[in-house]
Amino acid sequence: MSMEPVTLENWMRPPYNVSAYQRIGELIPTAPISRGAGPVHDLIAEGTGLGSLELRLQDGPRRRLTVAELVEWSHTDALVVLHRGRLVHEQYEHGMRPGTRHLCMSVSKSITATAVGSVIESGALSPDDEVGAIVPEFRGTGLAGASVRHLLDMRTGTREDITTLELQRAYFSICQWAPPAGPPDEDSRSHFWRLTQVRPHGGDFEYRSTLTCVLALLAERATGLRVPELISRHLWRRLGAEHDAEITVDRSGHALADIGVCCTARDLARLGEALRRDGLRPDGTRVVPEGWVADTLTPDGDQAAAFLRHGSPYLTVPGAYYRNQWWVAAPRTPDGGGVYMALGIHGQMLFVHEAAGVVIAKFSSWPEPWIDDLARGSIAGCLAIADTLSSLST
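Structure for Serine hydrolase domain-containing protein, as requested:
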């Protein structure tokens, strides 16, 4: 029996999401994120792959499995593993290829924020800037008095207002992620001005996608660049990416900076490798500002405590925190490098382990948006790959 076509009604549900995440541009309007005309940062393959490598996981429902079993168990579509810049494992499932773009979901947040890091380095924006000073329309709203730093670390005192299934469906319709519905004059930014403040800014971390979109709007106003061009100019063209990326846009043409980036697994790994090298490509080209990664891996004194209430269910690691829109499992210390990652629903991940010299890009198509066992197991699997590669090279 043949499966019904993939549509805006079903594309985020299994089994349709497996195919849909690889061809978002056929379903939803997108804008290109150009790689430019510069040379590609070549990934040099080393070895025959890690499929049979046995891993010992410290967390999650599985305690021992091979890399190949991890791929199958966690509904992986693509897995790219770099060790000290060398491509030591590359695996594609469900029709994916090295040149296939895949929806990043909330890994988009980390990509957007990293591009904003370059805007900050240019002087056009500062972490201390008040939101209302950059976008006057925020004066008198729940974001009045919040800073760029509060947005970067998701520590504003505002309440997320897309809190019910009905509101989410309406929002996805406005974003063109679902069939048309709702007021025709609304777009994905209309709810910004309705945000309410429920506690002081700078308190607990709480994960809210809206804050990434607000950050993107501030960067647009500060630079005069739309989000796709901003990411292209401040990140993708510098990266040595092999392929253009793309980002979904709403009915007003606003890019979904929080969830809409689509790219290849190799290019996502290239970003991780540049970050692992403190913002530099292997040829010395600067991709990310000097100090951005160090800032991400240096928490404020209260950052880990602020993370506990709302963040620990996602990242169950003692001392973890969220900074610059990256999930940090371990800060950088005098004794060792940091461990940090970008995470997205349905199993999207970019993982960086500095001490082990390991970068892992993983695209997946989980049957549900968030599955605790798969999330914990996937993170534990990446940690186990890093630990194993580190031990094999010493």
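The mean pLDDT is 95.
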